[in-house]
Amino acid sequence: MTVEELHDEVRAIDAIYPDSVTDIAPQIYTFKIPNHECISIQLTFPENYPEESPQLLQIINDNRSRFTDNTYLERNINEILQRAFVPEQVMLFELLTELQEFFDRYVEEHPVPPSPPPEKKKDAEEETVTTAPVKKKESVNLKVEVDPTIGWKQSDPIIDRKSTFIAYARKVSSLEEAQSYLNELITDKKISRATHNISSWRIKTSDGIQFQDCDDDGETAAGGRLLHVLQMMDVWNVIVVVSRWFGGIHLGPDRFKHINSAARDVIIKGQFLDAETNNTKKKKK
């Protein structure tokens, strides 16, 4: 990979996660962890990246009271870095996704204890009155945000001239379910920032009624082409969403090629094609 290609990959990450990347020096960048911006990692990239893995230079921890053990964090980040690296394949998006999941688990497993109320001299009547509000504050701290992408299969990112394409897919059994899943997915911070979220679905009910439709979301003709891919692959009871983050350079017809490629990738990865094919074979027998 050339230096310019590395720059393209870094710019694509910055398009997905705005203001998350800092260029420190040639081949050295700092990346903020998505949803945990108080933690950043500084990586140095070798000249022959992606044949050789980048190296972790340091962890920048702006919340030591929340993430107290830097040695523990460094060990786990290095393990994730080694696991995400595949020779000759770009890795930054997968790396940041895994790091976000790691810190999500860390926060969930290490909740911050509620602060004790300030000590004041009160008579018995005052203490009785303030007991209930303290319990309510503790219950608020137990709320956990749900990841909107849970249950969705995800394609590998496709990066071309600073634009990034990622496809998501999951099983559905009704139009209401498809719309509900779609509405939930686009609440994700990263996906909500996409320039377009093209979607298509094909549904076959138990009584034989069939539904299929699509939505361009501003990318003219893209929805119909995505639906055509689902028809050609003969998959049913699935919704596919292809997110595109525009990088500022128009791709022309190549954008449809990338949308189709991402859709095929997620259908195969999620085994939606295999399940449908096996069912068809059993019916023929």
Automatic annotation (TrEMBL):
Annotated ranges, domain RWD: 8-106
Q: Which InterPro entries match?
A: Impact, Impact_N, RWD_dom, UPF0029_Impact_CS
Q: Name one GO cellular component term.
A: cytoplasm
| Pfam families xref list | Impact_N (PF01205), RWD (PF05773)
Q: Where is this region: Disordered?
A: 108-133
Note the coiled coil stretches, chain numbering.
none
Q: Which domain of life is it from?
A: Eukaryota
Per the UniProt entry, what is one GO biological process?
Answer: regulation of translational initiation
Q: What is this protein called?
A: RWD domain-containing protein
What organism is the protein native to?
Answer: [Candida] subhashii
